[in-house]
Specification:
It is a single chain. With 324 residues, this protein is of the alpha/beta class. The protein folds into two domains: 120 residues, NAD(P)-binding Rossmann-like Domain (Rossmann fold), CATH 3.40.50; 172 residues, 2-Layer Sandwich (Dihydrodipicolinate Reductase, domain 2), CATH 3.30.360.10. The protein contains eight helices and 14 strands. Helix 6 crosses helix 8. It is globular and about 60 Å long. The termini are far apart.
Length: 324
């Protein structure tokens, strides 16, 4: 199959290009950059046949791609995802896949009507450590009740698109996919209620730090702190009736790094070593398997649930603004 990348992004260069030669279901590659973007030599690291396009529209028309991966700025994900779906391509979208829940619903409807895969690339959930933690909980015959997540990092270069509101920047769009997907992964549900607290904003009103409290059914909850104005932290605590689990590097982790999962059960401490894994390679192979079997429902469901949860956050923000 041929994969077309809409966007020659840093994510593509750093995380996806290095694994493309390992993916057996991909036999050729096309990359489209935005019009004014210069090419560098990083794409030359791929040994598979590659085709380059200087704009997105020509690539969609001429590439004959079977799969499209949208890796543009956040504000244009919906536009290009809708375009490639209507062109008959299986579609992967960088997180956040969309800005509005209605956009997610529309894309899923198109994908289902055409029998195409559609997925938001929350790749960290495919790392072995996530399944290991789930298995630890199951083996101890308990369930998670409270999740506490921290994902925050130091300020980035001032030209980074995350600082540009018109490009879909801001900490909320950039990091809320982690908040909602970690709740979906462990609770297997969407939140019933959400409270959002804006911690820090720039002069133009762009949020760079926020906190969340999300209530789920059966007395479960998620507390999260996210942003890009602090020392680096990337951590999850899971608390249940008889169990507490702590893990660092939960949302992003180096490919070669094994991780220590700290477990407390009935007040007895232990450590479990999680094996290493390349999240993009694991995720993309899952995509390939899904296309082979024509089974797309779990990807639709994950994307739908995460978009629904993000919409609850936005609704709470709007409610707070109207009250003031």
């Amino acid at each position: 199959m041929k994969v077309l990348f809409i966007g020659y992004s840093n994510l593509l260069k750093k995380r996806i290009l290095p694994v493309l030669d390992k993916l057996e279901f991909i036999d050729s590659v096309a990359i489209a950059k935005f019009v004014d973007q210069p090419w560098d030599d990083l794409y030359k690291s791929i040994s598979k046949p590659i085709e380059l396009f200087d704009n997105y529209k020509d690539a969609i028309i001429k590439s004959n791609g079977s799969i499209a991966y949208i890796t543009t700025t956040n504000n244009s994900h919906f536009l290009w995802a809708k375009t490639v779906l209507n062109a008959g391509m299986h579609t992967i979208i960088d997180k956040p896949a969309t800005i509005r829940f209605s956009e997610t619903e529309e894309l899923i409807d198109i994908a289902k009507s055409k029998g195409l895969l559609l997925s938001e690339s929350t790749v960290y959930t495919y790392h072995p450590q996530l399944l290991l933690i789930k298995n630890i909980i199951k083996q101890n015959n308990t369930t998670p009740k409270l999740l506490t997540a921290h994902f925050s990092f130091p300020p980035m270069d001032a030209n980074n698109f995350r600082y540009k509101k018109e490009l879909g920047g801001g900490a909320l769009l950039d990091t809320s996919p982690y908040a909602v997907s970690i709740g979906r992964f462990f609770f297997e549900a969407v939140p019933e209620q959400c409270n959002y607290l804006e911690n820090a904003i720039l002069d133009d009103g762009l949020e760079i730090s926020y906190s969340l409290l999300m209530k789920y059914s059966n007395g479960r909850a998620l507390i999260g702190h996210f942003g890009f104005n602090t020392e680096y932290v990337n951590r999850l605590n899971i608390l249940g009736e008889r169990i507490s689990i702590d893990a660092d590097r939960i949302f992003t982790i180096p490919d070669s790094m094994t991780n220590i999962i700290r477990v407390k059960v009935n007040n007895q401490n232990s450590e479990v070593i999680a094996p290493c894994g390349n999240t993009f390679e694991l995720y993309l192979n899952a995509i390939g398997d899904s296309i082979k079997t024509n089974e797309f429902e779990r990807f639709y469901n994950d994307m739908y649930m995460d978009a629904y949860a993000r919409e609850l956050i936005y609704s709470n923000i709007n409610k707070n603004q109207n009250e003031h």
